Amino acid sequence: xxxxxxxxxxxxxxxxxxxxxxxxxxxxxxxxxxxxxxxxxxxxxxxxxxxxxxxxxxxxxxxxxxxxxxxxxxxxxxxxxxxxxxxxxxxxxxxxxxxxxxxxxxxxxxxxxxxxxxxxxxxxxxxxxxxxxxxxxxxxxxxxxxxxxxxxxxxxxxxxxxxxxxxxxxxxxxxxxxxxxxxxxxxxxxxxxxxxxxxxxxxxxxxxxxxxxxxxxxxxxxxxxxxxxxxxxxxxxxxxxxxxxxxxxxxxxxxxxxxxxxxxxxxxxxxxxxxxxxxxxxxxxxxxxxxxxxxxxxxxxxxxxxxxxxxxxxxxxxxxxxxxxxxxxxxxxxxxxxxxxxxxxxxxxxxxxxxxxxxxxxxxxxxxxxxxxxxxxxxxxxxxxxxxxxxxxxxxxxxxxxxxxxxxxxxxxxxxxxxxxxxxxxxxxxxxxxxxxxxxxxxxxxxxxxxxxxxxxxxxxx
Length: 462
Description:
By secondary structure, the protein is of the alpha+beta class. The protein is 17% helix and 24% strand.
């Protein structure tokens, strides 16, 4: 693994940015995730920064002041350019930023003129000056995987109770090529999609109109760092050297459209109307203390083929990341109610690792490019409260019970909201909020921020 635990992870390290020292902050000095800020200036310039506490630090301002000399920082670089750097070079920049932002370093702390230009205070996703957090990277390509066996088992059990997992699932990371143009930043409002739904009876005509079964999918996204040439293959040993970091991904899903269109070629309009990502890329360097073994495979499951198997990846290829999904209906917000949590799962439960996804994606010679986005697929655990979508969360079946309880997919228990409202799927006006964070004894808690989206009614001309 190219990512080591070093002095930047020291839990005793504090910052002169006081908000970063809050034990519950997602962004202590040990994190320093990448982000991109659209400045509210004459040029509406897009600038690269790192988040710390409630602030974003703009790297070009530090570079102009000579504070990044010798780090290899490229003036004007966006996150895509950064992703192309060798991990060792990125770590030089990380160490210098950690030094500049530490409590006992006066270089930036006591330079009030530079601090005013370089350190921007944010409230949510907007600064006091009107600067806006954008997508952390603008991906040219997007592949979404299906890497949680618990999610795949739940969904398969709804529709194929006698054969939940298809024969290939335990041999290859299943995925599909998504739509990069409809990936949007956290906070973007999402219009309810319109399309065809399955006929009410066999041989009938499909219905057409707004989606009735709108859902979210709690996923993690991996941002590709250095790419590979067309025709080349990224080996399992090299795979993590090609990953910049992780973000939260909400792969909005129109379940009724999906049911009608997914045979024989898989997801299409049910998925490509919007996917939302959080504003920050938590780097592989920052995640080093939170690595864990790959989830243990059930007895009798096949081992991955040699090109996807590596002892180091088995020992440290997982990530101990807690994932939460929250909801606030329009009525809840109007009444000043706080969001309620729908589920809590963990990314360590994935059947396939990110490294395995990368190496399988390229084994046929497919070229990945810097900034490409890979979605993990819905992250679900074995308990009901760890299911990563409403499709699973409101379903009454339990394929992990002894013996399994496989109730047909139409049998659902709705989620009850504090207003008395009920939800089997997402209603107009609902806000879905996703959170992710890492906690481990002996290290500072770090987080990924939030991934938010409010559903608006479908367009009127249907």
